[in-house]
Specification:
By secondary structure, the chain is mainly beta. The protein is built from two helices and 15 strands. The strands form four sheets. Strands 1-2-3-4 form a four-stranded antiparallel β-sheet, with no helix packed on it. A hairpin with a 5-residue loop joins strand 5 and strand 6. About 15% of the residues have low confidence. GO terms for molecular function: protein phosphatase regulator activity.
Length: 230
């Protein structure tokens, strides 16, 4: 099943689409108007020993986005964000763990259909950061530069301090000085969000978008739209 499609931002003859098998295909319309053959294929194979009943389900890509310059493609599957260089089809250049702490709960997530949730992803206009949503109306922001260790979690809420629990063992880290009130570094424990609360799988932040030129993120949570300026 084709799950997402995106045109290249500068080359009108190039587009990419993702599939439920976890692959991304790059199409060149100069070769054919019928997109039954790809010019490049991007996929990451699981080692045979790590396969399980859920392998193909969590490998399904729910969203892809081109970077502004068109060199990179960001993809989101259930567990991770992956950044691909269109000149390197051997594997992703970066992988960001979003839901790794949910791996022991895959059976429960399958039974309540949460494992089929389709989270979107986005890149900042300068390509320095990537973002995607999670449960409990949280979203994650990662630094995409290879040397970056940035991993920030924010909550889309009218009262962002409501769930904040300060613990000295986990340092806070902001995207920049303007957003410092609801951030928390990664390292979640099983069943809990980054603020130490139990995850609420009924509240999920599926849709978000980064402004193409300004450092702003729009997040759709339930019936509200939240704007964050970094």
């Amino acid at each position: 099943v084709i799950t997402s499609a995106e045109f290249h931002p500068t080359h009108c003859n190039t587009l990419a689409y993702s599939s439920s098998k976890g692959s991304i295909r790059l199409i060149d319309l100069r070769q054919s108007a019928l997109c039954d053959r790809h010019s490049k294929l991007f996929e990451e194979h699981e080692s045979p020993g790590s396969r399980s009943f859920f392998t193909e389900i969590i490998a399904s890509i729910s969203d892809i986005k081109f970077g502004r310059d068109g060199r990179y493609i960001l993809s989101r599957d259930y567990m991770t964000l992956k950044l691909w260089d269109i000149n390197m089809d051997a594997g992703p250049v970066s992988t960001f763990q979003v839901h790794e702490y949910l791996r022991p709960k895959l059976c429960d997530l399958y039974e309540n259909d949460s494992i089929f949730d389709k989270f979107e992803c986005c890149l900042s206009g300068d390509g320095q950061r990537v973002a995607t949503g999670s449960y409990s109306n949280l979203f994650r922001v990662f630094g995409s530069v290879p040397t970056s260790t940035e991993a920030t979690t924010l909550e889309a809420s009218k009262n962002p301090m409501r769930r904040q629990v300060q613990t000295p063992s986990r340092p806070t880290r902001s995207i920049s000085s303007s957003i410092s009130r609801v951030v928390r570094r990664g390292g979640e424990s099983t069943g809990n969000d980054t603020n130490g609360n139990s995850f609420d799988f009924t509240t999920k932040l599926l849709h978000l978008a980064w402004h193409p030129t300004e450092n702003s993120i729009a997040c759709a949570a339930a019936n509200s739209l939240y704007m964050y300026y970094a």
